[in-house]
Amino acid sequence: MTMRLDYLSIFPAYFDVLDISLLGKAAVNGLVEVHAHDLRDWTHDRHRTVDDTPCGGGAGMVMKPDPWGEAFDEIIGTEPDSSVHVIFPSPSGAPFTQSAAQELSSAVRIVFCCGRYEGIDHRVIDYARSMWTVHEVSLGDYVLNGGEVAALAITEAVVRLVPGFMGNPESLAEESFSAGQDGLLEYPLFTRPVSWRGLDVPEVLMSGHHGRIAKWRRDESVRLTCERRPDLTDSDFGVPH
Ligand SMILES: COc1ccc2nc(C(=O)O)sc2c1
């Protein structure tokens, strides 16, 4: 199954980067199909206008609904289809999570709508909700200048989970937030040399004792999660003795 990704933006060149590194490989392997579109291609005035002043007053500009609607008609179609996922990155969106990435990794089509200015006329989102499966998501409690960087981050989080994308899918099981880690943060990692600038690899990792190594890693994941992300812990994890 090929996942088709569409990006609607006034800066479509942001998505040229998807032709490199791992994502480029996936695109070559037919796992992923990427299409970036310039929203201004669906304007009809000399200045290719996509924004206007906000109704009710206020600072900044709002993205007009018309270009979005015409772009939707051409890129997605005019018939409702719940299998199409439309993502609006937004500071007022729900926090994007690893479980959301996991769910989206089985999607056949994902369309990213990248807002700029103060945002997109809300009727665009309401219309999309009437037609497709819509996700309004934020990367975190900060504000970017537009949705493009968020769309790229979400793309990477999702595509790396697409079956066949990762060379060694087992590595996914031990990552932070993965089910294999019970949603805990990943333990500290080490490789050779065993001693580096007076700093040594923890002895347990060189012991060859798999049970002790597994316990050390679990304890470290719990410790790190309790320290850095208490919001992810509950009474079941506890703090290692
Ligand atoms: C106008 O479009 C925007 C503006 C800021 C912004 N910030 C995001 C974030 O996830 O932090 S998504 C997003 C979209």
Automatic annotation (TrEMBL):
Enzyme class: transferase
Binding positions (S-adenosyl-L-methionine): 115, 139-144
InterPro entries in the record: Alpha/beta_knot_MTases (IPR029028), tRNA_m1G_MeTrfase_C_sf (IPR023148), tRNA_m1G_MeTrfase_TrmD (IPR002649), tRNA_m1G_MTases_N (IPR029026), tRNA_MeTrfase_TRMD/TRM10 (IPR016009)
Keywords, sorted A to Z: Cytoplasm, Methyltransferase, S-adenosyl-L-methionine, Transferase, tRNA processing
Residue ranges of every copy of the tRNA methyltransferase TRMD/TRM10-type domain listed in the record: 3-233
Main location: cytoplasm
Catalysed conversion reaction: guanosine(37) in tRNA + S-adenosyl-L-methionine = N(1)-methylguanosine(37) in tRNA + S-adenosyl-L-homocysteine + H(+)
A family per Pfam: tRNA_m1G_MT
EC identifiers of the protein: 2.1.1.228
Coiled-coil stretches: none
Origin: domain of life: Bacteria
Function: Specifically methylates guanosine-37 in various tRNAs.
Assigned protein family: Belongs to the RNA methyltransferase TrmD family.
The protein's name in its UniProt record: tRNA (guanine-N(1)-)-methyltransferase
Species in which this protein is naturally found: Cutibacterium acnes subsp. acnes
Lineage, broadest ranks: Bacteria, Bacillati, Actinomycetota, Actinomycetes, Propionibacteriales
